[in-house]
Amino acid sequence: MSNIDKQALREAVERAIHDDWGYDTDIFHEQVTPSVVLALLNENLQLQREKDAIEAVALALRDDMRQAREQLEAAERSIAEQSAIVAAAEKLVRCKGRYHSELNYRALAKLFGVITPDLPPLEYENVHYTDAAEVEISALRQRIQELEARTVTLPQRAPENLASVLDGYEKWLIATTFRDTWNACLAEVTRMNAAGIKGA
Predict the structure, then answer these.
(1) What residue ranges carry the coiled-coil annotation (predicted)?
(2) Phi first, then psi: what are they for 152, rounded to 5°?
(3) Taking the CB of residue 175, how many other CB atoms lie within 10 A of it?
(4) I want to staple 121 with a disulfide (CB 3.0 to 4.6 A). Which of 46, 93, 101, 126 is the partner?
């Protein structure tokens, strides 16, 4: 902006307009020189350029906002459409064992990004997992065979003298309760063996 005293210039113009004698007109001509007019024109041109630049930015922002709004609406429509597809896929994935094979279940889960912690990794995903599982299964089968082959012999009755080893009434009561419980369990095991229930 120029250093022109615009208020003084305005007052000189107003006085010159209403001056019948020409005195104030002379003062006006002294204040309005070609350099003052040029400075005012340059300032006006600069203000017009700034105004045009601001309007251009405002138009660009308006266009950007309209475009962003359209993109947002398109994205919201796409999300709504895809959420319905994802919901249907999740239902399919959840019914894995009832209607679909494990491979279909895995394919759907992978396609829709659903985590399936209930499935072990595929054989090609983790070869060591299969080997470790086979070793564990083999060890468990061997242990089951050992336990089934073993014969457990229970004493016919709980020791009668258990209470005599303990001191005091409470210990005697505990020992008596233990003896009675032991005998009841032994009777139940005997009944189950007589009924042919294996492992009892």
Answers:
(1) 51-92
(2) -105, 125
(3) 19
(4) 126
